[in-house]
Amino acid sequence: MVRRLLAAATLVLWASGCATAPPPAATPDPIHAPPGGKAKTMTLHGQLTGEGVECQAFRAEDGTLYTLLGDFRGFKAGDRVTIEATPVQMSFCMQGVTVEVTRITRREAPTASD
């Protein structure tokens, strides 16, 4: 009798461990591309900063911190720039939203009337 009870309990526990709930539906993220999808190019205005630990950092005019992947020769922290970039799913950058820069251009410093 004890063996049957133990066997039944083991079977119930084993069967319940195999039944898993489906994962929750993914919420669309406007910044990051869906897995297997293609991210949209963003155009951002702001300033290169020295905030990056592993990657060049960029502070957008809205205050968002981005870390950048790409070629920034000729640019340095403090430069006001416009970038065209696409978000990346994973990177070694340790902060902010990481984007891959496809184009970077200098912007003029704001004038007193701005």
Task: Summarize the structure in words.
The chain is an alpha+beta fold and 114 residues long. It has a domain at 42-106: OB fold (Dihydrolipoamide Acetyltransferase, E2P) (Beta Barrel). Helices cover 15% and strands 32% of the residues. It contains 1 helix and 5 strands. It has one helix at residues 2-18, and strands at 42-49, 56-60, 65-69, 80-87, 97-106. The longest helix is centred in the first third of the chain and has 17 residues, at 2-18. 13% of the residues are buried.
Report how far apart the termini are. 86 Å
Helix percent band: 10-25%
- How can the largest sheet be summarized? 5 strands, mixed, barrel
Determine Rg (CA atoms, Å).
25 Å
Brief synopsis:
With 114 residues, the chain is of the alpha+beta class. The chain has one helix at 2-18; strands at 42-49, 56-60, 65-69, 80-87, 97-106. Strand 1 and strand 2 (56-60) form a beta hairpin.
